């Protein structure tokens, strides 16, 4: 019986892994023997974890709903800023007609008190806003953190000292307070007559950048620690002996061995960023009305809680489910990529 192997570099150095399955050479025996890549083994662990798979399905469902928001609202006949004055009663302070906030076949989740906006349309479009800010800021912070962590861990010396002190300073900042203070200042500085977009779009860009600026240090600290360990491994020494340049060592030797902690960091950053964006909108420094946002919906709903509890209940529960699913998915990814961890 023969099997072909090739060296594969991992976080613990080069190991042997079967490249392609081969058949037994004995006549009449058709046993296929092959190795599994780390990604396949991780995916197998994810599939075997019912909690992680449930979280994955819920997350994908939310993403599909956000992508199909225009189609879903077209089917219902109401947009996020299309009022239905016939659904609210002016004699009761524009409260929705009927029970449970005006839930009916025409308005699946009811209507907003005061405005008459369809709550289903507001929630669906608000989901797009939350997911965009959460994922976009996580991408930016991860890219910046990976580059800074690679540089600090590999070069060492004054570069490591400088970048490490910057990380310490960023981690010491009270993130939410500084974002609240800086968001309107940065927007006013960027606001011109030719910025190429609406004020709402500019505010989204400012939110993404502000959240990313205060989040990249977590990823950088994690990557730096991994690089400090990997740079002393035999496969890095072998690359140096073969006169490999720094770019090759950084991006062809070290970076491929960091995909697991980077993916874990990204998966855990998304729900945190969504929560931060919702908190900013709740405090009035997030998404600009009339753009829908779950944090702004919660802020408005708090004024009508006694008259219309469903107005607060719907976006609040959906935000809880989304963040919980993303957190459980991030924990599952971490467990799947770390063979030594086991869910209790």
TrEMBL record:
This is Glutathione transport system permease protein GsiD. Residues 1-13 have a biased composition (Polar residues). Pfam families: BPD_transp_1, OppC_N. Keywords: Cell membrane, Membrane, Transmembrane, Transmembrane helix, Transport. Residues 1-22 are annotated as: Disordered. One of its GO terms (cellular component) is plasma membrane. It is a multi-pass membrane protein. Belongs to the binding-protein-dependent transport system permease family. The keyword Transport applies. Signal peptide: none annotated.
């Amino acid at each position: 019986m023969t099997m072909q192997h090739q060296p594969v570099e991992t976080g613990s150095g080069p190991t042997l892994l079967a490249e392609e399955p081969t058949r037994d050479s004995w006549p009449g025996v058709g046993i296929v023997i092959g190795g599994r890549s780390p990604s396949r083994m991780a995916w197998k662990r994810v599939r075997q974890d019912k909690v992680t798979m449930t979280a994955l399905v819920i997350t994908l469902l939310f993403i599909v709903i956000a992508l199909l928001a225009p189609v879903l609202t077209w089917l219902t006949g109401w947009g996020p800023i299309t009022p239905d004055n016939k659904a609210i009663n002016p004699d009761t302070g524009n409260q929705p007609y009927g029970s449970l906030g005006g839930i009916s076949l025409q308005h699946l989740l009811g209507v907003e008190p005061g405005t008459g906006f369809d709550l289903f349309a507001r929630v669906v479009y608000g989901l797009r806003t939350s997911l965009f800010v959460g994922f976009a800021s996580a991408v930016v912070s991860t890219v910046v953190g990976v580059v800074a962590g690679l540089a600090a861990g590999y070069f060492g010396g004054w570069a490591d000292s400088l970048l490490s002190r910057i990380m310490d300073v960023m981690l010491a900042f009270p993130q939410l307070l500084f974002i609240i203070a800086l968001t309107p200042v940065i927007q006013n500085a960027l606001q011109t007559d030719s910025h190429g977009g609406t004020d709402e779009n500019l505010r989204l860009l400012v939110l993404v950048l502000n959240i990313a600026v205060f989040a990249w240090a977590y990823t950088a600290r994690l990557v730096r620690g991994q690089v400090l360990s990997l740079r002393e491994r035999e496969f890095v020494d072998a690359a140096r002996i073969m006169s490999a340049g720094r770019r090759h060592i950084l991006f062809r030797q070290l970076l491929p061995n960091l995909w697991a902690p980077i993916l874990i960091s990204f998966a855990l950053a998304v729900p945190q960023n969504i929560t931060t964006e919702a908190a900013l909108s709740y405090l009035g420094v997030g998404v600009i009305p009339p753009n829908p946002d779950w944090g702004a919906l919660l802020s408005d709903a708090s004024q009508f809680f006694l008259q219309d509890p469903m107005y607060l209940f719907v976006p609040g529960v959906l935000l809880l489910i989304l963040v919980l699913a993303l957190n459980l998915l991030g924990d599952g990814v971490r467990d799947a990529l770390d063979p030594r961890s086991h869910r209790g």
